[in-house]
Amino acid sequence: MKLLNYFRGEAFQRGVHPASRKEATADRRIRRLPYPPRVTVPLVQHIGKPPHAIVKVGQDVVRGQPIARADDWLSVPHHAPVTGVVEAIELRPTARGPWAQAIVIRSQAGATQEDLWGKTRDMEAATGADILQAVWDTGMVGLGGAAFPTHAKLSVPKQAKVHTLVVNGCECEPYLTCDHRVMVEEADDLVRGIRYAMRVTGAVRAIVGIEDNKPEAVEAVEAAIARANAPEGAIHAEAVPTKYPQGSEKMLLMALFGVEIPSGQLPVAMGMVVNNVGTLAALGRLLPLGQGLTERVVTVTGPGVARPGDYRVAIGTPLKFVMDYAGVEAKAGLDRRQVILGGPMMGQAIASLDVPITKGVSGVLVFRHDDMLANDRRKTYPCIKCGECVESCPMGLNPSTLGMLAAKREYDLMGSDYHLGDCFECGCCTYVCPSNIPLVQQFRVAKQILRERAVA
Amino acid sequence: MATLGIGLAGMLAFANRKLFVFEDPRIEEVENRLPKSNCGACGQPGCRAFAEKVVAGNLMPAQCTVSSPEQRNGIADFLGVAAGDVEKKVARLACAGGRHVAFLRARYAGHDSCRAAAVVSGGGKECAWGCLGLADCANVCTFDAIHMDLHGLPVVDADKCTACNDCVEVCPKGLFSLEPVSRRLWVACKSQADGDTAEAACEVACTACGKCVADAPPGLMKLNGNLAAINYELNAWATRVPIERCPTGAIVWFDNPNHAVKGAVAKKVLRNEPLPVLH
């Protein structure tokens, strides 16, 4: 099969090829979005436990000052994204739906918004453990979208040994170009971040996997590697054939090395650690300065956006502010547009514009009523057992059967016999289904119910 | 062939004697007298397991909340035990925000189920705690005790409800709970938003004004964040006084298990058509 894939020029089995639609933003430089009058920093922006707020209502904060402390290993601190006054610590709407505790900061008009809090760090003298602690202190989470705490991902279990750091620059989601622009514009930061991550994990080589629809990113990263005087061959960039969902770490490892990670295990079991380019570029910039994560690059695009582009956005900026700035037509078809946080395949459709940009938001996509008309007419038909979903599932699951089980609410069977836990909700099955069955949505429900049952 | 048949028959007869497992015949009889819906409301894996526990004396017949009084007494007479006294519970919904009083913030288009809508940004309702109205509870109910009213809100038929817990488990917003029918004072809202925000999202939301707490006997009610809460340990003290000054009608009084009344000053909702989508 591997041989067959070699001749077909495919990196991993199955998957799909959605239209990339990255043209609108791929060649524009990253621009800074102005600081909003008010930011909302939710305490939970990551996978794990919430940190504790360490500021009081009415307190003045400067940009970069820690405002929440992590007490648990699977938790990250937060830093004030703007200089201003803490206005409230209360329940606020989130993109996921339920309201959650958030710190609201009113930004001070006329502040320079420089990060004056951080103290420069001597990175050359730091040991691996020092760097790991420093990573935790930045409040870094996976900026690719999953928002898993980076320090937890970089820490290697005692019995495991890591030889390879894989840097994920695939950005396989249509529309999104934030990782692409970061690789082109901040390649030096990226290479620095890679070298820190190699020191933390003990990896002897690093490979930056980039999809071959971004040749200038490959060039930029290769040039930065050459500038960095790394030991010969320790870091290199590799182009992989474009295919969705290559940005999933298991797919990327298959594409780069032909290695399949066994079900239920992490790449670290095979001596590999995978990190997103945006995450490492941010670390490369923040660690020497001793600063925290207060902003990220977000792709704002879609047919409903007048000024699409990649914007550097302060964490906690309200979505409405971002959309106003990017020129989303305020009136036409207002109530019939669709806004998605993240990419179109795996992103989250949102129901309120009051939600803030969080650390895990890689894109804001806006579709107008006209763009969705076809979707509106989409009707769900019974499964005709054509097998398209089975042909497309990168994890080798059987979405058709899983869908039928979900309709019968046989969730336990889905988990035990049909490996629902391996589904990472890439959306390929729903994308190809000729009957328009909302398979991924059913799987999300099933996974949620199984999680609830596991707790109960 | 005949020899073989006789031989095997002999073995079977021998096995029947030798390997016979004695089972209390009363278990079979009790099981036959149960409703046999295997709903799990009693906490047992099914009616058979319940029957075994009743015969063993670990459970009382009345703990099968699904059975009728005749069935219970029949089992009790048959076994010569007391039927037991278990207060009837019904499923109650902590939301009154139908389409005519609660705003939507977005249109949800997708899989027609509350659970599925809830994973898409919490669904289209402006109130993040409110009922999504896509009838997961009515669909899951084995006893046909829940139907959706014209405003898209589930209505529980207390006579049919057996307190089997299915609706409690299925509701993604956790709005159902099983309450003894003697709990007649009820907060039909779960919104933790502050008063103005809650009322802007839904006309019948609890705004945490505190009037019910002031009017109720000491300790019966309190404000839990932005929501009125009832301490049912003092349920014997409950009267319909606390509902009378409730401005939105979020605190109700069940004058019978199927009928909740609002206080005198609660704003009257005459509208029948759905409210528009906000934003």
Describe the structure.
The complex is a heterodimer of chains A (456) and B (279). In chain A, helix 6 (187-201) crosses helix 7, helix 13 (399-407) crosses helix 16 and helix 14 packs across helix 16. Chain A has 16 helices and 17 strands. Chain A folds into 3 domains: 2-27 and 119-289, NADH-ubiquinone oxidoreductase 51kDa subunit (Rossmann fold), CATH 3.40.50.11540; 33-108 and 293-372, Ubiquitin-like (UB roll); 388-455, no CATH class. Chain A has helices at residues 2-8, 23-26, 128-138, 150-154, 178-185, 187-201, 215-227, 249-257, 277-289, 319-325, 369-376, 388-392, 399-407, 411-417, 428-432, 439-455, and strands at 31-32, 38-42, 52-53, 60-61, 66-69, 78-79, 84-92, 100-107, 164-169, 205-211, 235-240, 272-276, 295-301, 309-314, 338-341, 348-349, 363-367. Helices cover 31% and strands 18% of the residues of chain A. By secondary structure, chain A is of the alpha/beta class. In chain B, helix 2 packs across helix 3 (47-55). Chain B is 27% helix and 13% strand. With 279 residues, chain B is α+β, with helices and mostly antiparallel strands. The mean pLDDT of chain B is 89. Chain B folds into 2 domains: 23-86, Electron transport complex subunit B, putative Fe-S cluster (3-methyladenine DNA Glycosylase II, Chain A, domain 3, Orthogonal Bundle), CATH 1.10.15.40; 89-261, Alpha-Beta Plaits, CATH 3.30.70.20. In chain B, strands 5-8-9 form a 3-stranded antiparallel sheet, with no helix packed on it. Chain B has helices at 2-18, 25-33, 47-55, 69-79, 114-119, 136-140, 166-170, 195-201, 211-215, and strands at residues 89-93, 146-148, 154-156, 176-180, 185-187, 221-224, 227-230, 251-256, 259-261.
